[in-house]
Structures are given as structure tokens and as C-alpha cells.
């Protein structure tokens, strides 16, 4: 942890950095590829909408049922003529979902299921969901998502500027598309819990993005008064300065969600946790990626189109070229000043030659 803290401090001070903004075309390409895959998954497989959106019936058995999930699926299909989704709950009971049936069919299906499961029909609980109610829930979900997007754009445009609002909106659409595409490819059921998970991960994604934007806004207040850094350079510093913080918050948020998804939904078989945990897990990871690799580089792209930023970039590049030329000239002068036939410097002690006449004819011993 101390090494990670030292790394974060060095990134924040600018002692080390990674060129996220300079390599933005690579990140754009990766995001486009992932987004296209998600869209293809949505178009080919579609979303497995839950019974809350399609309408149907949910039958719940008493606890400690000896019937397996596969047998219950067969019984439900024979009784209704529709595919059924069966989940084994933590107390041993079975939850049987059959979509696309109306109220009149549910009583007959309930009797058939109770007979096949060797149960008293009164002990088989039935909950009916009408298709009109499911359609209303879906419409409300889309309305809520649209209102959320509009409010986010308005807030970011007021608190920062419209370019940052546009970049944040693109990042949010990126996160939603990837998350829904993963749902289509995996085949998990979409329930109201999924919608809640989507709205939650959008908040997390915005949190990371706003942290970087706030740092960027603070560092670019008087950007045109200097000629040392371009807007892209400062944007890259902002990403590096908040990188460790973004990673820490994302990892801390992902750990409990991973426990819900892989341990609760996978290992323990609590399938009802999959609908919200998958959206949270994928969305959190996509949100952390988009805030670093999409939102801020896109802001830099939009800002570099401004005349003031173009002029600043020219001045910075000209100053850098002049500094490089002066360094080359100084190196050339230093090379010219050194004689070509100069003897190499002697390193270490040097032996002095003895004088030939020293001590010749001198008597030994002390002088009188």
C-alpha cells in the first residue's frame, strides 16, 4: 500500500506520467470496437426482458422442495406451452416465472403445476403481472433515464462548460451501451433491479469524470498566460494526478459487487442477485474506463479546436523547438571547442620522471 501511495504522490506531482491523451486514438478505437460488439449482441440476441416488462405469472412453491430445477422447467412448459424460468431460492423453494400468459390461463396452469409437483394448489403462491403494467414500467424507466441525462448535461454545462458536458454524456452513453450489450450476450434477465443498477453505475461513472474535470478546470484557469504546456498536456496531468484515486474507489466498489455476482449469484445459486449485480459490475468497470480514456481526452480534442488553444499550441511548440535548437547548438559548440588532437586526460596518479643530474657527485650523508 505504501508503494501505491508513493506512486499516487509521484503521479500527482507530475514526476512520472503516462500519455493517456496523446494515445487517445487507440482508446477511441478500443471503445468503438467494444461498442460495436455490444450493439451487434443487442441486435442479434436482444435483451431477455423480465416478467415485470412482458407480463405473466410467478409461482412460488413451499420450502424444501425435492423437485429439481430442470424438472420444474419441464412441468411449467408442459402446463403453459411457454418457456419458463425456474430459480431455486435460499430456503429451498422454487420460483417459476412464465411470461406471456393472461389471468384466465394462470388458474389452469396453477392446477397443473400443483398436480405435477405433488402440492396442494392452495400452497402454490401465484403473482400475476399484466402486460400493460410491464409496458408502463418500461416507459417509466426510459423516462427516468432521459431526465437523468438532461439534468446531468445541464449541471455539467453550468458547473464546468458545455464541452465537458458533451464529453460526459458520450461517456455515459458508452457505459450504458456496453452494459446492455453484455446483458444481451450473457442472457441474464432484465428486471427493475437492472434499471436501478444502471442508474447507480451512471452516478459512479460521473463521480470519476467530475473529479478529473474539477482538477482540469483548476489547472487551466490561466492557461493562455504561459507557454510551457498545451491544454492536452494539462489534461493528461489531471488524469495522472487523479488516477490512483479513481482506481482505489473503483476497486473498493467492485469488491462487494463481485461478491454478489460470483459468490451470491454463481456459487450459492441466488439467481435473483444476478439482475442488479451484473449491471453494477460491468457498469462500474466501464465507468472507470470511460472517465480516464474517453471523457477527458474528448474534452482535450474539443478544446484544442478553439482559436485561443490553437494559438497556445503553436507558441508552446515554437518555444519547445527553439529550446531544442539551442540545446543542439550548445552541444555543437562544446564539441567544436575541444581540440581534435587533444591528448586524453590522465586519470589517476602520474609518475614524475627522475632528474638525470639529481644527486650526481653529491656525497652521501648530511652536508656540513
Quick recap of the structure?
This protein is α+β, with helices and mostly antiparallel strands and 368 residues long.
Could you characterize what this model shows?
The chain has 368 residues and is of the alpha+beta class. Mean pLDDT is 80; it is low at 355-361 and 364-368. The strands form two sheets. A four-stranded antiparallel β-sheet has the order 3-4-2-5. Strands 1-6 form a two-stranded parallel sheet. The chain has twelve helices and six strands.
As laid out across the biggest beta sheet, the strand order is 3-4-2-5
Tell me the fraction of residues in β-strands, as a range. 5-15%
Oligomer: single chain
Element-level helix/strand string: HHEHEHEEHEHHEHHHHH
Low-confidence stretches: 355-361, 364-368
In this structure, how is the largest beta sheet organized? 4 strands, antiparallel
Structural class of the secondary elements? alpha+beta
Helix content: 55-70%
* Number of β-strand runs: 6
Mean pLDDT: 80
Please give the radius of gyration in angstroms.
35 Å
Shape: elongated
Structure characteristics:
368 residues; four-stranded antiparallel β-sheet; elongated; disordered C terminus
List the helices and strands and how they pair.
Elements: H1 2-13, H2 24-44, E1 48-49, H3 51-54, E2 56-60, H4 69-80, E3 84-88, E4 94-99, H5 103-116, E5 125-129, H6 131-159, H7 162-186, E6 189-190, H8 192-219, H9 231-241, H10 243-267, H11 274-303, H12 307-337
